[in-house]
Design goal:
Rossmann fold; alpha/beta
Length: 146
């Protein structure tokens, strides 16, 4: 069964709502195993066991969270060649801007040679019903493309 790894940093109620919507979106896709790991505890073994990954982070001072950066630092070399072509998606939540975080994630996933299978989701401000539906759709899209 294909396994989707969600690597997330969820320090706020807004990010928790987004993570729950992601879980709901993956649940809509039959026969996909969901593995959810906080970015500070996810590692190379988790990534190597996955058939795809969904990354979630707040935008902090124009960048991804330190927790997600730590994940990338931890898995980069052990997974560099083994995860080429890995399907992935990303969601970023910020109070006013997510561009820097999305740019940095794009550079790292590009260097890893992963395959982006869904448009990045940028959420600004308190997530409303349409934002949460977009999260469900993002998660389902990534799950379908494993």
């Amino acid at each position: 069964m294909p396994r989707l790894l969600v690597v997330h940093h969820t320090p706020s109620p807004a990010m928790q709502a987004v993570l729950e919507a992601v879980r709901e979106g993956v649940a809509l896709v039959e026969e996909v195993e969901l593995v959810v790991r906080p970015a500070l505890s996810a590692g190379a073994a988790d990534l190597l066991d996955a058939h795809g990954v969904l990354l979630g982070t707040p935008a902090n001072i124009g960048y991804m969270s330190g927790a997600l950066k730590h994940f990338f630092d931890t898995v980069y070399y052990p997974c560099l060649d083994a995860t080429v072509g890995l399907p992935f998606g990303v969601y970023v939540h910020g109070n006013d801007d997510t561009a820097g975080a999305l740019n940095a994630i794009g550079r790292i996933t590009g260097a890893l040679r992963w395959k982006q299978v869904a448009a990045p989701l940028s959420l600004v401000g308190a997530p409303g019903p349409a934002d949460l539906e977009a999260c469900r759709e993002l998660a389902a899209t990534v799950a379908v493309n494993l």
